[in-house]
């Protein structure tokens, strides 16, 4: 088990090093709540090409950060966050 923990820590360091070399790493990490690990997951999920989404709203929806409203009778209810993209675990 200790060997596995060491391997995971080594891989985390490698991922962080690769992420920090990305040209948008400092911008991605400037978003509150996004650090090295989540930033790396974000780049992996999007392929690193932010222009592929066309707008910030589309990118937010893909990432699951855009609130979704549902129309119920005569009022709008804010339901939950929705993701139109793939989930990276």
Q: What's the total count of β strands?
A: 2
Instruction: Count helical runs.
Output: 4
In this structure, how is the largest beta sheet organized? 2 strands, antiparallel
Approximate shape = elongated
Low-confidence stretches: none
Secondary-structure-based class equals alpha+beta
- SSE order: HHHHEE
Radius of gyration: 17 Å
Q: What percent of residues are in strands?
A: 15-25%
Helical content (DSSP H or I, runs of 4+): 40-55%
Q: Kindly state the mean pLDDT as a whole number?
A: 81
> How far apart are the termini?
21 Å
Number of domains: 2
Strand order of the largest sheet: 1-2
Structure, described:
It holds the Pfam family Transposase_20. Residues 25-69 form the Transposase IS116/IS110/IS902 C-terminal domain. This is Transposase. With 89 residues, the chain is of the alpha+beta class. It has two domains: 1-48, no CATH class; 54-89, no CATH class. Helix content is 49%, strand content 17%. It contains four helices and two strands, in the order ααααββ. It has helices spanning 2-21, 25-29, 36-46, 56-63; strands at residues 66-72, 75-82. Strands 1-2 form a two-stranded antiparallel sheet. A hairpin with a 2-residue loop joins strand 1 (66-72) and strand 2. Helix 1 (2-21) packs across helix 3 (36-46). The chain is elongated, with a radius of gyration of 17 Å. The chain starts with a helix and ends in a 7-residue tail after the last strand.
